[in-house]
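Re-run with default settings, no changes from the original entry. Doing this only to confirm the output is reproducible before filing.
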Amino acid sequence: MRYALYIAVVIATLFALGWFVVMHEGAIVFAVLLPFAVLGTVDILQTRSTLRRNYPLLAHFRYGLEAIGPEMRQYFIEADTAEVPFSRQERALAYQRSKSVLDTRPFGTLQDIYGTNYEWINHSLAPSEYMTHDFRVTIGEHCAKPYSASVFNISAMSFGSLSANAIRALNKGAKAGNFYHDTGEGSISPYHREYGGDLVWEVASGYFGCRNDDGSFSEEKFAVAAADPQVKMIEVKLSQGAKPGHGGVLPGAKVTPEIAATRGVPVGVDCVSPARHSTFDTPKGLLEFVDKLRTLSGGKPSGFKLAIGHPWEWFGIAKAMHETGLLPDFIVVDGAEGGTGAAPAEFIDHVGVPMHEALMLVHNTLVGLGLRDRIRIGAAGRVISGFDIAKTMAMGADWCNAARGYMFALGCIQAQSCHTDRCPSGVATQDPKRWKSLDVPDKSTRVFHFHENTLKALRDLICACGLRHPGELGPEHILRRVSPTEVRSLAAIYNFIAPGALLDSVPPHAVFQQYWADARSDSFSPPPRIAALRVSKSL
Protein backbone atom coordinates (compact mmCIF):
# COMPACT_ATOMS: atom_id res chain seq x y z
CA MET A 1 0.00 0.00 0.00
CA ARG A 2 2.80 2.36 0.97
CA TYR A 3 4.61 2.13 -2.34
CA ALA A 4 1.62 1.30 -4.54
CA LEU A 5 1.51 4.67 -6.30
CA TYR A 6 5.28 4.80 -6.72
CA ILE A 7 5.42 1.29 -8.17
CA ALA A 8 2.55 2.06 -10.52
CA VAL A 9 4.35 5.14 -11.83
CA VAL A 10 7.61 3.22 -12.33
CA ILE A 11 5.79 0.43 -14.21
CA ALA A 12 4.00 3.01 -16.33
CA THR A 13 7.29 4.73 -17.06
CA LEU A 14 8.96 1.49 -18.10
CA PHE A 15 5.98 0.63 -20.24
CA ALA A 16 6.17 4.03 -21.89
CA LEU A 17 9.90 3.59 -22.48
CA GLY A 18 9.32 0.20 -24.05
CA TRP A 19 6.54 1.55 -26.18
CA PHE A 20 8.81 4.39 -27.30
CA VAL A 21 11.62 2.05 -28.24
CA VAL A 22 9.38 -0.39 -30.09
CA MET A 23 6.88 1.91 -31.73
CA HIS A 24 8.76 5.24 -31.74
CA GLU A 25 5.48 6.91 -30.75
CA GLY A 26 5.64 7.03 -26.93
CA ALA A 27 7.94 10.00 -26.47
CA ILE A 28 5.28 12.32 -25.07
CA VAL A 29 4.02 9.78 -22.55
CA PHE A 30 7.56 8.96 -21.52
CA ALA A 31 8.44 12.64 -21.11
CA VAL A 32 5.39 13.20 -18.91
CA LEU A 33 5.86 10.18 -16.64
CA LEU A 34 9.64 10.30 -16.19
CA PRO A 35 9.62 13.34 -13.84
CA PHE A 36 7.09 11.59 -11.61
CA ALA A 37 9.30 8.52 -11.41
CA VAL A 38 12.28 10.70 -10.54
CA LEU A 39 10.29 12.62 -7.92
CA GLY A 40 9.03 9.39 -6.36
CA THR A 41 12.59 8.12 -6.11
CA VAL A 42 13.71 11.36 -4.47
CA ASP A 43 10.83 11.10 -1.98
CA ILE A 44 11.91 7.66 -0.86
CA LEU A 45 15.58 8.60 -0.56
CA GLN A 46 15.12 11.90 1.32
CA THR A 47 14.94 11.94 5.15
CA ARG A 48 13.35 15.25 6.17
CA SER A 49 9.71 14.29 5.55
CA THR A 50 8.32 11.00 6.86
CA LEU A 51 5.08 11.53 4.93
CA ARG A 52 6.96 11.79 1.63
CA ARG A 53 8.91 8.62 2.41
CA ASN A 54 5.76 6.72 3.35
CA TYR A 55 3.59 8.22 0.60
CA PRO A 56 5.83 9.21 -2.34
CA LEU A 57 4.21 11.59 -4.82
CA LEU A 58 0.89 11.57 -2.99
CA ALA A 59 2.26 13.73 -0.14
CA HIS A 60 3.07 16.49 -2.62
CA PHE A 61 -0.60 17.15 -3.23
CA ARG A 62 -0.90 18.03 0.46
CA TYR A 63 2.29 20.07 0.66
CA GLY A 64 1.59 21.81 -2.63
CA LEU A 65 -1.78 23.05 -1.46
CA GLU A 66 -0.30 24.02 1.91
CA ALA A 67 2.23 26.18 0.08
CA ILE A 68 -0.51 28.25 -1.55
CA GLY A 69 -0.92 30.37 1.55
CA PRO A 70 -1.95 30.56 5.19
CA GLU A 71 -5.60 29.93 4.39
CA MET A 72 -4.88 26.55 2.83
CA ARG A 73 -2.35 25.67 5.54
CA GLN A 74 -5.05 26.34 8.12
CA TYR A 75 -7.44 24.14 6.15
CA PHE A 76 -5.06 21.19 6.31
CA ILE A 77 -4.28 21.65 9.97
CA GLU A 78 -8.02 21.85 10.63
CA ALA A 79 -8.62 18.75 8.52
CA ASP A 80 -6.11 16.81 10.60
CA THR A 81 -7.82 17.51 13.89
CA ALA A 82 -11.34 17.84 15.21
CA GLU A 83 -10.09 19.99 18.06
CA VAL A 84 -10.79 23.64 18.82
CA PRO A 85 -9.07 26.42 16.81
CA PHE A 86 -6.19 27.06 19.23
CA SER A 87 -5.03 23.49 18.58
CA ARG A 88 -4.23 24.57 15.03
CA GLN A 89 -2.17 27.45 16.36
CA GLU A 90 -0.33 25.10 18.74
CA ARG A 91 0.67 22.79 15.93
CA ALA A 92 1.79 25.62 13.67
CA LEU A 93 3.89 27.11 16.49
CA ALA A 94 5.49 23.77 17.37
CA TYR A 95 6.32 23.08 13.71
CA GLN A 96 7.89 26.50 13.27
CA ARG A 97 10.03 26.25 16.37
CA SER A 98 11.10 22.67 15.74
CA LYS A 99 12.31 23.70 12.29
CA SER A 100 13.80 26.99 13.55
CA VAL A 101 11.49 28.86 11.16
CA LEU A 102 10.87 32.52 11.99
CA ASP A 103 7.73 32.59 14.14
CA THR A 104 7.09 36.31 14.14
CA ARG A 105 3.70 37.34 12.77
CA PRO A 106 2.35 40.42 10.96
CA PHE A 107 -0.91 42.28 11.60
CA GLY A 108 -1.13 41.70 15.33
CA THR A 109 -2.56 38.94 17.48
CA LEU A 110 -4.82 36.14 16.31
CA GLN A 111 -6.58 36.26 19.66
CA ASP A 112 -9.76 38.15 20.44
CA ILE A 113 -8.30 40.55 23.01
CA TYR A 114 -11.75 41.78 24.00
CA GLY A 115 -13.21 38.32 24.45
CA THR A 116 -13.76 36.71 27.84
CA ASN A 117 -10.83 34.60 29.08
CA TYR A 118 -8.22 36.39 26.99
CA GLU A 119 -4.95 36.29 28.99
CA TRP A 120 -1.68 38.21 28.88
CA ILE A 121 1.45 38.85 30.92
CA ASN A 122 2.29 42.32 32.21
CA HIS A 123 5.61 43.76 31.10
CA SER A 124 7.96 46.14 32.88
CA LEU A 125 9.20 49.57 31.88
CA ALA A 126 12.59 48.40 33.13
CA PRO A 127 13.13 45.10 31.26
CA SER A 128 15.96 42.79 32.26
CA GLU A 129 18.94 42.29 29.99
CA TYR A 130 19.05 39.03 28.04
CA MET A 131 20.40 36.08 29.99
CA THR A 132 20.73 32.36 29.51
CA HIS A 133 17.58 30.56 28.45
CA ASP A 134 18.70 27.33 30.16
CA PHE A 135 16.43 27.75 33.17
CA ARG A 136 16.76 24.91 35.66
CA VAL A 137 15.35 23.69 38.96
CA THR A 138 17.01 21.36 41.48
CA ILE A 139 14.84 18.39 42.48
CA GLY A 140 15.63 16.24 45.50
CA GLU A 141 17.94 18.65 47.28
CA HIS A 142 18.04 16.36 50.32
CA CYS A 143 18.67 13.20 48.28
CA ALA A 144 22.02 11.55 47.76
CA LYS A 145 21.68 12.21 44.01
CA PRO A 146 19.72 15.44 43.40
CA TYR A 147 18.84 16.30 39.81
CA SER A 148 19.06 19.65 38.04
CA ALA A 149 16.12 19.61 35.62
CA SER A 150 15.21 21.91 32.77
CA VAL A 151 11.95 23.78 33.32
CA PHE A 152 10.62 22.18 30.09
CA ASN A 153 10.81 18.42 29.50
CA ILE A 154 9.27 15.51 27.59
CA SER A 155 6.20 14.11 29.30
CA ALA A 156 5.41 10.40 29.67
CA MET A 157 4.96 8.51 26.38
CA SER A 158 5.71 4.79 26.35
CA PHE A 159 7.54 2.63 23.88
CA GLY A 160 4.67 0.60 22.46
CA SER A 161 2.51 3.67 22.21
CA LEU A 162 5.31 5.40 20.29
CA SER A 163 7.51 3.74 17.73
CA ALA A 164 11.15 2.80 18.16
CA ASN A 165 12.40 5.66 16.00
CA ALA A 166 10.12 8.16 17.77
CA ILE A 167 11.64 7.14 21.12
CA ARG A 168 15.13 7.34 19.65
CA ALA A 169 14.52 10.83 18.26
CA LEU A 170 13.01 12.13 21.51
CA ASN A 171 15.87 10.82 23.60
CA LYS A 172 18.57 12.03 21.24
CA GLY A 173 16.95 15.48 21.23
CA ALA A 174 16.78 15.45 25.04
CA LYS A 175 20.45 14.54 25.21
CA ALA A 176 21.40 17.41 22.90
CA GLY A 177 19.28 19.93 24.82
CA ASN A 178 20.09 18.66 28.34
CA PHE A 179 16.49 18.06 29.38
CA TYR A 180 14.75 14.91 30.53
CA HIS A 181 12.68 12.27 28.77
CA ASP A 182 9.94 10.53 30.80
CA THR A 183 9.74 6.86 29.84
CA GLY A 184 6.01 6.47 30.31
CA GLU A 185 4.70 3.35 32.01
CA GLY A 186 6.05 1.01 29.31
CA SER A 187 9.45 0.93 31.06
CA ILE A 188 12.94 1.56 29.71
CA SER A 189 13.44 0.15 26.22
CA PRO A 190 16.75 -0.26 24.36
CA TYR A 191 15.72 2.78 22.32
CA HIS A 192 15.63 4.95 25.46
CA ARG A 193 19.22 3.93 26.20
CA GLU A 194 20.67 4.26 22.73
CA TYR A 195 21.60 7.95 22.90
CA GLY A 196 22.02 8.41 26.66
CA GLY A 197 19.50 11.22 27.28
CA ASP A 198 18.35 11.79 30.88
CA LEU A 199 15.45 9.52 31.85
CA VAL A 200 12.69 9.76 34.42
CA TRP A 201 11.50 6.20 34.95
CA GLU A 202 7.75 6.03 35.37
CA VAL A 203 6.65 3.09 37.53
CA ALA A 204 2.94 2.42 37.09
CA SER A 205 0.44 -0.17 38.27
CA GLY A 206 1.72 -2.82 35.86
CA TYR A 207 5.26 -2.46 37.28
CA PHE A 208 6.66 -2.97 33.80
CA GLY A 209 10.39 -3.50 33.88
CA CYS A 210 10.32 -4.31 37.59
CA ARG A 211 7.66 -7.00 37.99
CA ASN A 212 7.48 -10.61 39.05
CA ASP A 213 5.75 -13.21 36.89
CA ASP A 214 2.50 -12.68 38.80
CA GLY A 215 2.53 -8.95 38.12
CA SER A 216 3.66 -7.89 41.58
CA PHE A 217 6.48 -5.43 42.21
CA SER A 218 10.04 -6.83 42.22
CA GLU A 219 12.50 -4.94 44.42
CA GLU A 220 15.46 -6.79 42.89
CA LYS A 221 14.58 -5.99 39.27
CA PHE A 222 13.79 -2.39 40.15
CA ALA A 223 17.11 -1.86 41.96
CA VAL A 224 19.10 -3.21 39.01
CA ALA A 225 17.36 -1.02 36.43
CA ALA A 226 17.24 2.11 38.65
CA ALA A 227 21.00 1.94 39.22
CA ASP A 228 21.60 2.96 35.61
CA PRO A 229 23.20 6.45 35.66
CA GLN A 230 20.93 7.45 32.79
CA VAL A 231 17.92 7.19 35.14
CA LYS A 232 17.81 10.48 37.03
CA MET A 233 14.47 10.29 38.88
CA ILE A 234 11.73 7.79 39.75
CA GLU A 235 8.07 8.67 39.19
CA VAL A 236 5.19 6.55 40.53
CA LYS A 237 2.19 7.00 38.25
CA LEU A 238 -1.10 7.04 40.14
CA SER A 239 -3.17 8.37 37.23
CA GLN A 240 -2.77 10.25 33.97
CA GLY A 241 -4.63 13.16 32.47
CA ALA A 242 -5.85 11.36 29.35
CA LYS A 243 -7.76 8.64 31.20
CA PRO A 244 -7.53 8.97 34.99
CA GLY A 245 -8.93 6.05 36.93
CA HIS A 246 -8.76 3.80 33.85
CA GLY A 247 -6.42 0.88 33.25
CA GLY A 248 -5.47 -0.52 29.89
CA VAL A 249 -4.82 -3.68 27.90
CA LEU A 250 -2.27 -4.16 25.13
CA PRO A 251 -3.73 -7.09 23.15
CA GLY A 252 -1.54 -10.18 23.01
CA ALA A 253 -1.24 -9.89 19.22
CA LYS A 254 0.65 -6.62 19.72
CA VAL A 255 2.94 -7.91 22.47
CA THR A 256 5.98 -8.53 20.30
CA PRO A 257 9.17 -10.15 21.65
CA GLU A 258 10.68 -6.67 21.83
CA ILE A 259 7.84 -5.14 23.85
CA ALA A 260 7.65 -8.26 26.02
CA ALA A 261 11.35 -8.00 26.87
CA THR A 262 11.03 -4.29 27.69
CA ARG A 263 8.00 -4.70 29.93
CA GLY A 264 8.87 -8.09 31.43
CA VAL A 265 5.71 -9.81 30.23
CA PRO A 266 5.08 -12.98 28.17
CA VAL A 267 5.14 -12.74 24.38
CA GLY A 268 1.72 -12.86 22.74
CA VAL A 269 -0.24 -12.58 25.99
CA ASP A 270 -2.53 -9.64 26.84
CA CYS A 271 -0.48 -7.05 28.73
CA VAL A 272 -2.71 -5.65 31.47
CA SER A 273 -2.14 -2.30 33.12
CA PRO A 274 -4.49 -2.28 36.14
CA ALA A 275 -6.43 0.80 37.12
CA ARG A 276 -4.84 0.81 40.60
CA HIS A 277 -1.63 -0.30 42.32
CA SER A 278 -1.36 -3.61 44.15
CA THR A 279 1.67 -2.63 46.26
CA PHE A 280 -0.22 -0.11 48.41
CA ASP A 281 -3.82 0.83 49.10
CA THR A 282 -3.57 3.79 51.49
CA PRO A 283 -2.03 7.28 51.37
CA LYS A 284 0.57 6.22 53.93
CA GLY A 285 1.31 3.12 51.87
CA LEU A 286 1.95 5.31 48.82
CA LEU A 287 4.50 7.42 50.70
CA GLU A 288 6.21 4.33 52.09
CA PHE A 289 6.46 2.94 48.54
CA VAL A 290 7.96 6.20 47.23
CA ASP A 291 10.46 6.18 50.10
CA LYS A 292 11.37 2.56 49.32
CA LEU A 293 12.03 3.41 45.65
CA ARG A 294 14.27 6.29 46.71
CA THR A 295 16.30 3.89 48.86
CA LEU A 296 16.41 1.10 46.26
CA SER A 297 17.55 3.57 43.58
CA GLY A 298 20.51 4.69 45.66
CA GLY A 299 19.05 8.04 46.69
CA LYS A 300 17.62 9.35 43.42
CA PRO A 301 14.74 11.85 43.65
CA SER A 302 11.45 9.96 43.83
CA GLY A 303 7.89 11.20 43.66
CA PHE A 304 4.54 10.56 42.06
CA LYS A 305 2.30 11.78 39.26
CA LEU A 306 -1.45 12.12 39.52
CA ALA A 307 -4.47 13.69 37.94
CA ILE A 308 -6.60 15.18 40.70
CA GLY A 309 -10.00 13.56 41.19
CA HIS A 310 -11.72 13.21 44.59
CA PRO A 311 -10.32 16.04 46.75
CA TRP A 312 -10.39 13.93 49.92
CA GLU A 313 -7.96 11.41 48.37
CA TRP A 314 -5.37 14.12 47.69
CA PHE A 315 -5.98 15.57 51.15
CA GLY A 316 -5.42 12.10 52.60
CA ILE A 317 -2.01 11.96 50.92
CA ALA A 318 -1.19 15.43 52.22
CA LYS A 319 -2.21 14.47 55.77
CA ALA A 320 -0.05 11.35 55.50
CA MET A 321 2.93 13.54 54.60
CA HIS A 322 2.31 15.73 57.63
CA GLU A 323 1.79 12.83 60.02
CA THR A 324 4.63 10.54 58.90
CA GLY A 325 7.24 13.00 57.69
CA LEU A 326 7.67 10.79 54.59
CA LEU A 327 7.82 13.27 51.73
CA PRO A 328 8.09 12.77 48.00
CA ASP A 329 10.82 14.82 46.39
CA PHE A 330 8.37 15.94 43.72
CA ILE A 331 4.77 15.72 42.58
CA VAL A 332 3.74 15.96 38.92
CA VAL A 333 0.21 17.27 38.40
CA ASP A 334 -1.28 15.94 35.17
CA GLY A 335 -4.22 17.91 33.83
CA ALA A 336 -7.34 16.43 32.27
CA GLU A 337 -6.74 18.43 29.08
CA GLY A 338 -3.48 16.55 28.48
CA GLY A 339 -2.96 13.24 26.73
CA THR A 340 -1.58 12.46 23.30
CA GLY A 341 -2.78 8.93 22.63
CA ALA A 342 -6.14 7.24 22.39
CA ALA A 343 -8.57 7.06 25.31
CA PRO A 344 -12.34 6.62 25.69
CA ALA A 345 -14.21 9.75 24.63
CA GLU A 346 -15.93 10.21 27.98
CA PHE A 347 -12.59 10.08 29.80
CA ILE A 348 -10.95 12.55 27.44
CA ASP A 349 -13.82 15.01 27.69
CA HIS A 350 -15.26 14.63 31.17
CA VAL A 351 -12.98 12.93 33.71
CA GLY A 352 -10.37 14.62 35.89
CA VAL A 353 -9.60 18.16 37.02
CA PRO A 354 -8.00 20.56 34.47
CA MET A 355 -4.32 21.26 35.07
CA HIS A 356 -4.42 24.78 36.47
CA GLU A 357 -7.19 24.07 38.97
CA ALA A 358 -5.46 20.83 40.00
CA LEU A 359 -2.13 22.63 40.31
CA MET A 360 -3.68 25.29 42.53
CA LEU A 361 -5.13 22.66 44.86
CA VAL A 362 -1.82 20.80 45.23
CA HIS A 363 0.21 23.99 45.59
CA ASN A 364 -2.18 25.50 48.15
CA THR A 365 -2.29 22.33 50.23
CA LEU A 366 1.50 22.07 50.46
CA VAL A 367 1.77 25.78 51.30
CA GLY A 368 -0.89 25.39 53.99
CA LEU A 369 1.06 22.52 55.57
CA GLY A 370 4.37 24.37 55.41
CA LEU A 371 5.80 21.75 53.02
CA ARG A 372 5.95 23.66 49.75
CA ASP A 373 9.64 24.54 50.00
CA ARG A 374 10.54 20.87 50.49
CA ILE A 375 8.54 19.39 47.59
CA ARG A 376 8.91 20.40 43.95
CA ILE A 377 5.87 20.47 41.67
CA GLY A 378 5.86 19.69 37.96
CA ALA A 379 2.82 20.24 35.75
CA ALA A 380 1.65 18.79 32.45
CA GLY A 381 -1.43 19.43 30.37
CA ARG A 382 -1.41 21.13 26.99
CA VAL A 383 1.78 23.13 27.48
CA ILE A 384 3.14 24.30 24.12
CA SER A 385 4.44 27.87 24.24
CA GLY A 386 6.67 30.01 26.40
CA PHE A 387 3.56 31.77 27.69
CA ASP A 388 2.05 28.42 28.70
CA ILE A 389 5.15 27.70 30.77
CA ALA A 390 5.16 31.20 32.27
CA LYS A 391 1.50 31.02 33.27
CA THR A 392 1.84 27.53 34.77
CA MET A 393 4.92 28.50 36.79
CA ALA A 394 3.20 31.70 37.91
CA MET A 395 0.45 29.51 39.37
CA GLY A 396 2.83 27.43 41.45
CA ALA A 397 4.68 24.90 39.26
CA ASP A 398 8.46 24.57 39.41
CA TRP A 399 8.68 23.11 35.91
CA CYS A 400 6.52 21.87 33.03
CA ASN A 401 6.31 18.74 30.92
CA ALA A 402 4.81 18.43 27.45
CA ALA A 403 3.89 15.58 25.13
CA ARG A 404 1.96 16.88 22.12
CA GLY A 405 4.43 19.68 21.35
CA TYR A 406 7.28 17.19 21.10
CA MET A 407 5.10 14.89 18.99
CA PHE A 408 4.50 17.78 16.61
CA ALA A 409 8.27 18.23 16.46
CA LEU A 410 8.55 14.58 15.42
CA GLY A 411 6.17 15.25 12.53
CA CYS A 412 2.82 14.23 14.03
CA ILE A 413 -0.02 15.63 11.91
CA GLN A 414 -2.80 14.65 14.34
CA ALA A 415 -4.20 12.08 11.93
CA GLN A 416 -5.98 10.61 14.99
CA SER A 417 -4.94 7.06 14.14
CA CYS A 418 -2.74 6.50 17.21
CA HIS A 419 -4.82 3.50 18.30
CA THR A 420 -5.02 1.87 14.85
CA ASP A 421 -1.29 1.20 14.32
CA ARG A 422 -1.55 3.09 11.03
CA CYS A 423 0.03 6.40 12.01
CA PRO A 424 1.10 7.94 8.65
CA SER A 425 3.99 9.90 10.18
CA GLY A 426 5.60 6.85 11.84
CA VAL A 427 5.27 8.33 15.35
CA ALA A 428 2.57 6.23 17.02
CA THR A 429 2.85 2.87 15.28
CA GLN A 430 4.69 -0.42 15.65
CA ASP A 431 4.52 -1.09 11.90
CA PRO A 432 8.17 -1.05 10.76
CA LYS A 433 7.09 -0.17 7.22
CA ARG A 434 5.88 3.14 8.66
CA TRP A 435 8.19 3.99 11.58
CA LYS A 436 11.45 3.17 9.79
CA SER A 437 10.77 6.14 7.51
CA LEU A 438 11.00 8.49 10.51
CA ASP A 439 14.57 9.77 10.26
CA VAL A 440 16.11 9.92 13.75
CA PRO A 441 18.89 12.49 13.11
CA ASP A 442 16.48 14.91 11.44
CA LYS A 443 13.64 14.54 13.95
CA SER A 444 15.93 14.62 17.00
CA THR A 445 17.26 17.95 15.74
CA ARG A 446 13.69 19.22 15.55
CA VAL A 447 13.02 18.03 19.11
CA PHE A 448 16.11 19.90 20.26
CA HIS A 449 15.09 23.07 18.38
CA PHE A 450 11.54 22.99 19.73
CA HIS A 451 12.86 22.89 23.30
CA GLU A 452 15.57 25.47 22.59
CA ASN A 453 13.36 27.98 20.81
CA THR A 454 10.50 27.64 23.29
CA LEU A 455 12.85 28.41 26.19
CA LYS A 456 14.27 31.37 24.27
CA ALA A 457 10.72 32.66 23.92
CA LEU A 458 10.22 32.11 27.67
CA ARG A 459 13.43 34.03 28.35
CA ASP A 460 12.18 36.95 26.26
CA LEU A 461 8.96 37.03 28.29
CA ILE A 462 10.89 36.92 31.57
CA CYS A 463 13.14 39.75 30.45
CA ALA A 464 10.14 41.81 29.34
CA CYS A 465 8.73 41.41 32.85
CA GLY A 466 11.95 42.71 34.40
CA LEU A 467 12.74 39.32 36.00
CA ARG A 468 15.72 36.95 35.93
CA HIS A 469 14.15 33.49 36.24
CA PRO A 470 10.63 32.09 35.60
CA GLY A 471 10.60 30.95 39.22
CA GLU A 472 10.14 34.63 40.13
CA LEU A 473 6.78 34.75 38.37
CA GLY A 474 3.68 35.01 40.50
CA PRO A 475 -0.07 35.03 39.77
CA GLU A 476 -0.01 38.83 39.87
CA HIS A 477 1.94 38.83 36.56
CA ILE A 478 -0.83 37.11 34.56
CA LEU A 479 -4.01 39.03 33.68
CA ARG A 480 -7.33 37.68 32.40
CA ARG A 481 -10.36 39.44 30.96
CA VAL A 482 -13.26 37.91 32.90
CA SER A 483 -15.98 39.99 31.23
CA PRO A 484 -16.16 42.64 28.50
CA THR A 485 -15.61 45.31 31.18
CA GLU A 486 -13.53 43.59 33.88
CA VAL A 487 -9.91 42.44 34.06
CA ARG A 488 -8.41 40.58 37.01
CA SER A 489 -5.03 39.07 37.81
CA LEU A 490 -4.78 35.37 38.59
CA ALA A 491 -3.89 36.45 42.14
CA ALA A 492 -7.37 37.94 42.42
CA ILE A 493 -9.17 35.10 40.62
CA TYR A 494 -7.69 32.19 42.57
CA ASN A 495 -7.67 31.83 46.35
CA PHE A 496 -4.18 31.45 47.76
CA ILE A 497 -3.59 29.98 51.22
CA ALA A 498 -1.18 31.59 53.66
CA PRO A 499 1.90 29.51 54.63
CA GLY A 500 1.08 27.13 57.47
CA ALA A 501 -2.65 27.96 57.42
CA LEU A 502 -3.70 24.30 57.51
CA LEU A 503 -1.66 23.65 60.64
CA ASP A 504 -3.91 25.84 62.77
CA SER A 505 -7.35 25.82 61.19
CA VAL A 506 -9.25 25.10 58.01
CA PRO A 507 -8.98 28.01 55.53
CA PRO A 508 -12.24 29.57 54.35
CA HIS A 509 -11.99 27.92 50.93
CA ALA A 510 -14.95 25.77 49.88
CA VAL A 511 -12.99 22.64 48.96
CA PHE A 512 -11.00 22.68 52.23
CA GLN A 513 -14.09 23.48 54.27
CA GLN A 514 -15.94 20.56 52.75
CA TYR A 515 -13.31 17.80 52.62
CA TRP A 516 -10.20 18.55 54.69
CA ALA A 517 -11.51 17.57 58.12
CA ASP A 518 -12.81 14.19 56.94
CA ALA A 519 -9.82 13.16 54.79
CA ARG A 520 -7.90 10.16 56.16
CA SER A 521 -4.22 9.29 55.88
CA ASP A 522 -4.95 5.58 56.29
CA SER A 523 -7.54 5.15 53.55
CA PHE A 524 -8.51 6.33 50.07
CA SER A 525 -12.13 5.48 50.87
CA PRO A 526 -14.65 8.32 50.96
CA PRO A 527 -15.09 9.93 54.39
CA PRO A 528 -18.00 8.58 56.46
CA ARG A 529 -20.07 11.68 55.78
CA ILE A 530 -19.66 11.31 52.00
CA ALA A 531 -20.28 7.55 52.18
CA ALA A 532 -23.44 8.13 54.20
CA LEU A 533 -24.66 10.64 51.64
CA ARG A 534 -24.15 8.08 48.88
CA VAL A 535 -26.17 5.49 50.82
CA SER A 536 -29.03 7.92 51.39
CA LYS A 537 -29.16 8.73 47.69
CA SER A 538 -29.20 5.06 46.72
CA LEU A 539 -32.18 4.54 49.00
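The first helix runs from residue 4 to 23. Residues 68-86 have pLDDT under 50 and may be disordered.
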